[in-house]
């Protein structure tokens, strides 16, 4: 059975590590994440943005894919299926479709509307035992065509959002989705520490791709308990697949069979997962 993300994040928050959130895109992705986390006995959050849900055929397809793979692969570690950057309508649809965790991202709305809609989503989700993430202050870069300049969230706004009954909070601290530009300033630890003192709950770090290990470790010390990774798995998958094709392996025997063609990319995703579980300190968390 899939679980919500509250218990695993509270445990991470108390014990000073972060749970990895990996975005999924398809069957191979989901399988790679589940198998790697089972192998490392690590709790994990599998997430899909609204765009990825649409790509895979809808919310129910995604919820059922993760649930059914989890059961048929005999996965024993805690796994949550989470909506990433959901709209109000998307979050409501996922609550009905069998997701165990949702993010309502009202960060582009006026603050009062964000707070009001977050409270509504919390009520609907908690009635079904589903955990809720909410966001104030945009997170830089591009996510499904939504862009915002890398912001530093306002501490007072974070405090207001945290009091809406949410389980964990996403707040901009200089992080950016996608590959970090060469002139990136790094995470703003002063702001993170102020937010952390104000909200007293697990903080979510979006844009986990490419953040150097020392900054990851410091962020975890300051209350980050969930780190989102998407682009890094995509890059690893694309690189391994390209190498396979450039080496002409799809033209050898039945090398064109998707089970062979997609295997190097799938294994490359697993390598990223292993590396992140180690870096985030969550490896072995299922038994901790
Ligand atoms: P990256 O694509 O930068 O890893 O960010 C992922 C993310 O934050 C998903 O919400």
How would you portray this structure in words?
With 288 residues, the protein is of the alpha/beta class. The model has no long low-confidence stretch (mean pLDDT 95). The strands form two sheets. Strands 1-2-3-4-5-8-9-10 form an eight-stranded parallel β-barrel, surrounded by eleven helices. It has helices spanning 6-15, 27-39, 50-56, 59-72, 88-97, 111-126, 155-162, 189-199, 213-221, 231-246, 258-261, 263-280; strands at 19-23, 44-49, 79-86, 101-104, 131-136, 141-143, 146-148, 168-171, 203-205, 224-229. It contains twelve helices and ten strands. It has a single domain, classed as TIM Barrel (Alpha-Beta Barrel). Helices cover 47% and strands 17% of the residues. Bound molecules: 1,3-dihydroxyacetonephosphate. 1,3-dihydroxyacetonephosphate (13P) binds at residues 23, 84-85, 177-178, 206-209, 228-232.
Main features:
288 residues; TIM Barrel; two-stranded antiparallel ribbon; alpha/beta; binds 1,3-dihydroxyacetonephosphate; globular; 10 strands; eight-stranded parallel beta barrel
What is the CATH homologous superfamily assignment? Aldolase class I
Give a count of the beta strands, DSSP E runs of length 2 or more. 10
In CATH, the architecture is Alpha-Beta Barrel
Indicate the structural class: alpha/beta
Tell me the CATH topology: TIM Barrel
Report the major sheet: 8 strands, parallel, barrel
Count the DSSP helices: 12
